Amino acid sequence: MNINITIKQLEIFAALVKTPHVGKVSKEINLSQSAISTALKNLEDILETKLFDRFNKKLIVNDNGRLFFKHIDPQLKHLNWCENIFRDAHLRGTLSIG
Fold it and tell me: First-to-last CA distance in the chain?
């Protein structure tokens, strides 16, 4: 199995769905606006589909984006939960997903 999508790309995508303003998301996650735009473009290239419609520099999540978000949002929440459990419990070891 070869996964080309990064967790950072998914986090950026989810942030843009929730706040469809590149400038605001850029400040929230401490990345430049160009890094946000590049990550989104790379994600769309990997998926071979557009996730947002672009109108006058505005991002509007489209049907593909809503469907993708529906599937990845629970996974991101689960990964965040796993990270918190290990960090908060001071557990050590290897976490295998998949």
Answer: 10
Measure CA 5 to chain center.
Answer: 9
b/e map of 38-58 (b: 16 or more CB within 10 Å)?
Answer: ebbeebbeebeeebbeeeeee
The interaxial angle of helices 22-29 and 33-47, nearest 10 deg, is: 100
Cα–Cα distance for residue pair 90/88, rounded to 1 Å: 5
Q: For the chain, how many residues are written?
A: 98
Phi, psi of 51 (to 5 degrees): -105, -20
In this prediction, residue 33 has a pLDDT band, given cuts at 50, 70 and 90, of: very high
**What's residue 87's pLDDT?**
77
CA distances from 81 to 12, 30, 52, 86, 88 (A): 18, 22, 27, 9, 10
Q: What is the pTM of this model?
A: 0.83
At residue 82, the pLDDT reads: 87
